[in-house]
Amino acid sequence: MSEDSAIQSVEISTIAHATEDISKVETAMQHLLANANRQYTRHYLTGHHGNPIIRVDTKLTHHDAVEFAKDLNQRLSGIDRDRLQRDLSLYSDEDGNLYIRLDKQSLFNNEIKLGDEDPIRVRMKFNRLVGDAEKLMMRYLES
User: Fold this and answer.
1) Which residues are CB-contacts of 123 (< 8 A; sequence separation ≥ 6)?
2) How does DSSP classify residue 35?
3) Residue 95 to residues 55, 99, 134: CA-CA distances in angstroms?
4) What pTM did the predictor assign?
5) What's the chain's average pLDDT?
6) Where are the domains of the chain?
7) Tell me: the pLDDT tens digits for 50-101?
8) What is the band of 39 on the pLDDT scale with cuts at 50, 70, 90?
């Protein structure tokens, strides 16, 4: 298997609150996806206090997932990549998933930064058949 097959899939999701313009939220996701033209799935939900919430998500597989992962890694700052490497156990699980939360507000301005408050969530699934998931994640973050 090639090193490109290390990334199996990528799932991206976020929440659009009642106070947000859904088209702007989808534009922020498109900024994250760069050149990929994606279809989004909208899930209409109700919040704890009865407020309307829309969860927006998309899934990338195969070549699209690999290209997205390469682009994301290049666009993340060195400080954010260092943080992910240093605290990898906080951002990953034993099943080969890397969880990254990106600041949605920064993505409105086409900037990619780690952020925990009102994030766009990215889950990268690494193929454990290619090798040790933690080593694959570290190799990905170092490139």
Assistant:
1) 10, 11, 12, 97, 98, 99, 100
2) T
3) 24, 12, 10
4) 0.90
5) 89
6) 3-142
7) 999 999 999 998 889 989 999 999 999 999 999 999 999 999 998 989 999 9
8) confident
Say how far apart CA 128 and CA 134 lie, in whole Å: 9
Q: At CA 45, angle to CA 118 and CA 105, rounded to 5?
A: 20
Q: Are 100 and 122 in contact (CB under 8 A)?
A: yes
**Per DSSP, what are the bridge partners of residue 103?**
119
Cβ(139)–Cβ(31) below 8 Å: no
Segment holding 109, helix H or strand E: none
Fold of 3-142: 50s Ribosomal Protein L5; Chain: A, (3.30.1440)
In angstroms, what CA-CA distances link 125 with 48, 55, 108? 30, 20, 26
Q: Judge residue 47's burial from the number of C-beta atoms within 10 Å of its C-beta, 0-12 exposed, 13-18 middle, 19 or more buried.
A: exposed
